[in-house]
Amino acid sequence: MGLNLQNRYMMDQVTFFDASIATVVGPIISVCVMQMVRSMSPEMTVKRMLTLHYKAMRESILMPYGTGFRIHLRSIFDRIGVLNTKQIQSEQLKVEINNALIESSAAIDLTRLQELVKKLSPESATTKSIFKLQNLLEQWWTEKKHRQPTDHLKQQLIRQFDQVLEDVQAVGDEDIRHHIEISVNNICSSMCHIQQAERQPSATLIGA
């Protein structure tokens, strides 16, 4: 006795196409979602904000003092305030955030140095030394934006800080000379985290 069973197969092309697309697109969407989650993680946010901080500090080197600079300075301090609220696990990033807090105090001295050099003769040794120092500082911040600066660049900066302090002794105006010494001292210790013990023993730093 037959059971009268029949096997019939139908292929719904639309359903088949949707399933195929889902098989391909599904993993892609998962990867995209993971990347979005990672991009919103505290560590990634901190890295992006540090990059903006390094850029802002580099811009301070040649920025004239005025309303624009005060707005610029406020943005630096606001960014530091936000960075200090981030809860992260990376010890390296914690160090960089702490360094950024110290570095921000040098922004005013960078602009002050730019204003002071305008009062000197363009041909003076001090002017040329300060210009060279500013170029090295720009390299420093450019390297920090992409990677940690090399020891070679750090040593170049140390020597140039000392050179400026040596050349500025020839400046006749005591007030200008004193303010240059203070600014160079502050920039050296704040921006590059160079302690006085790392400096040449012959260098005399004035100011705080």
TrEMBL record:
Pfam families: FUSC. One of its GO terms (cellular component) is plasma membrane. The chain crosses the membrane at residues 20-37. InterPro entries: PHBA_efflux_AaeB/fusaric-R (IPR006726). Keywords: Membrane, Transmembrane, Transmembrane helix. One of its GO terms (molecular function) is transmembrane transporter activity. This is Uncharacterized protein.
